[in-house]
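Pair request: fold both.
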Amino acid sequence: MPRLTVEGVGEFDVPEGKRLVLALEQDAGIDQLHACGGNARCTTCRVEFIAGEPSRMTVAERDVLSARGLTGIRLSCQIPCDHDMTVRALSRLAGSGRKDAGHEPAVNIEPPPVWVEK
């Protein structure tokens, strides 16, 4: 099982392949935002990697980050937990002014992933 470490929160063993956005919510108990439902459209699920950043990303993640000029962050909805990683949760419901975190993301990465090297 991969180990997910969330800065300031703790360490959690998560099932192999689980979406990071779901691991943050369900395993770490983080109020992680995902306004678009985890479909790589809104960038509210962003995290910063402290260690273990994946070397690949989905085309959807690459394109939305590029279109918004965002660097140094990743979209937790587009990352499978397939190795140990340490993240800083950047987008949380608390203090956001939103009424809820967003629609529950699907179990599988959406849109269906096409992988590219980061």
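--- second member of the pair ---
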Amino acid sequence: MEIIKIGYNSFKIALNASEAVEYDISSSDVNDDTKMNKSLKILLDKITSENRIDLENDKISAEIYISKDGGCEIFISRAVSVKQGSRQSKQEMRSIYRFERLNDLLEVCSRLYNGNANASAQLYYNRETENYYLVIYGIAPKEIKYAFICEYGERVKNSLLFYIIEHCESICEKNALEILSKLL
């Protein structure tokens, strides 16, 4: 078992195939929330006691990715408490979209850039699935004026960012909207 701290509120647990079996985590159970919650609780109880990680009073989210060899990667994110009345800054807001077609991605970038969206973006490519991931900073996921993005791509959970950074190829580190809008 390998535990990697990704950020202040997030970490990754990597299990090999035998460890995944030991904790009863398999691809057939990923959609069974009751079984996965039980398996994760057992795993997290062990990790927190051995590594002095305090998750007792924290709300957490978990993303599980099963590998072909039977092992898995589990990305754990703690909910950050926000003081009542405060708002996220534009830099803290993040939305992630997956695109299957390059033309759809370019159309979205063009519309956002030409519409003067006050946002920055990064682009990643997953060679295995042949999908593009556009990570947009400065746009809240539920802003209605940006709902058109879902006509071209699919919004994915923000916690997927750690997986994307680790497993996908970085195509454009910054200014992705400007650069990609000029390709259309």
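Observation on the second member. Residues 81-91 have pLDDT under 50 and may be disordered.
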